[in-house]
Amino acid sequence: MDVILLQRVAKLGQMGEIVKVKDATPVTSFCPRARRLRANEANKARFEDQKAQLETQNLESKKEAEAMAGKLDGQQFVVIRSASDGGALYGSVTTRDIAESATAEGFTVDRKQVVLRGPIKDLGIHDVSVVLHPEVEATIEINVARSNEEAELQASGKSIQDLAAEEEAAAEFEIQGLFDDIGGAANDEDGDDN
């Protein structure tokens, strides 16, 4: 089936292009009806009549998206999740979680705008793309932590795994000191018997 694109669609084409798609492909799911028309003579004439209006609407929405991207780009949002001592999450952070955390901070982000490169399944700071318009994208940081205190530590540049290793080393040093004290006390007692 040939379709006329009513706006730019990533990996498919620009506004006004006629592209060939199969009826039963995922193309029809990421290119909804609002973005395409079946390419027949009547729709081609209709598109030509509406082309100036569509370009104007596209330009306005692109300007709005660029303004929003300017505010959103580089922002960091915190998502609190349960995780193991090693930092592996019990589950994963979804696009819905990211959209809700951004919305809670006063930004209007839909979960369909959030693009994950891969699943977020561990603690730390992760870069995530937000597609605000087919031609405008912003990058935000998602700070995944077990508590707000951990999130603050991660935001300052410290890794939760590094902090856990430091605490473990400090605990081992303290235990070693106790054993040294006990060993020294035993030697003192042996010396008193002589």
Automatic annotation (TrEMBL):
Single GO term (MF): structural constituent of ribosome
Could you mention a single GO BP entry for this protein? translation
UniProt KW Ribonucleoprotein keyword: yes
Entry keyword set: Coiled coil, Ribonucleoprotein, Ribosomal protein, RNA-binding, rRNA-binding
Q: Where is the Ribosomal protein L9 domain?
A: 1-24
Q: Which InterPro entries match?
A: Ribosomal_bL9, Ribosomal_bL9/RNase_H1_N, Ribosomal_bL9_bac/chp, Ribosomal_bL9_C, Ribosomal_bL9_C_sf, Ribosomal_bL9_N, Ribosomal_bL9_N_sf
Q: Does the keyword RNA-binding apply?
A: yes
Q: Which Pfam families match?
A: Ribosomal_L9_C, Ribosomal_L9_N
Give GO cellular component annotations, separated by semicolons.
ribonucleoprotein complex; ribosome
Q: Which residues form a coiled coil?
A: 37-64
Domain Large ribosomal subunit protein bL9 C-terminal, residue spans: 63-145
The protein's superkingdom reads Bacteria
Q: Cross-referenced HAMAP family, in alphabetical order?
A: Ribosomal_bL9 (MF_00503)
Role noted for this protein: Binds to the 23S rRNA.
Q: Could you say which protein family the record assigns here?
A: Belongs to the bacterial ribosomal protein bL9 family.
Q: What protein name is recorded for this chain?
A: Large ribosomal subunit protein bL9
Underlying gene: rplI
